[in-house]
Amino acid sequence: MPCFSTISFRQPRPAIMPEPALLDTVRQIETPEGITLSLRAAGPVARALAWSIDLLIQCMALLALLIALATLSQGGFGVWLIALFLTEWLYPALFEVYAGGATPGKKALGLMVVHANGTPVGWSAALIRNLLRAADFLPVLYGFGMVAMFSNRDFQRLGDLAAGTLVIYRDPPILALTLLPGPALPPPSLSLTEQQLIIDFVERSTILNPARQAELAELLTGFTRLTGMAGVERLQAYARWLAGDHS
After folding, report:
1. What three-state secondary structure class fits 157?
2. What is the CA radius of gyration of the chain?
3. pTM here?
4. Using one digit for the tens of pLDDT, what is the confidence trace for 151-192?
């Protein structure tokens, strides 16, 4: 399931749309299913702040570990050096693969890493983009990385270009203001973007005829395991739960 900032089905929407950002960094990607993904690239300032938070977390963790291993003399220092190596190179990749594309620093700034086509980042891409931080850092303080970021509209550093990844803003889901009355069911374990996809569908279903609703619900059978209007009703029940109706 793709990860994205904003999702829209190709249907007219009478509701008031949010004002566009002053700096247009949005990349529009259309999937084969007819769903448009809007990926809003994050600039160097937000990414630098996220990196600073992650650096602080790593330094605090390594300092605590060094204190804990101080009693082991040289053997303890050897263990600490191994921990330093693993933290430097695997800390970002682990979070990007297993924590929705975001390290704690990126999560605090509302950022996430995805493939250029909007899909979740995997081990291969995560390792490539993080191992190439060594090249991005040259000659000092991410000099090459900054040059690369300002040379393309998606703010991709060298590691991103090699891995085919983007750092984007993770926008919160837009909950429907009005939902048809009915039962509410807790959805299966969903990411923030998957929750937004369901709510986006239910918002638009109010202006669609039943046949079109059932057709679009077929695209989301991975969530419901149901087809036709049964799938529509299940998605509506999930949306009511996500909107706060837990009755």
Report:
1. coil
2. 22
3. 0.61
4. 988 899 999 999 999 999 987 655 444 666 778 888 877 777
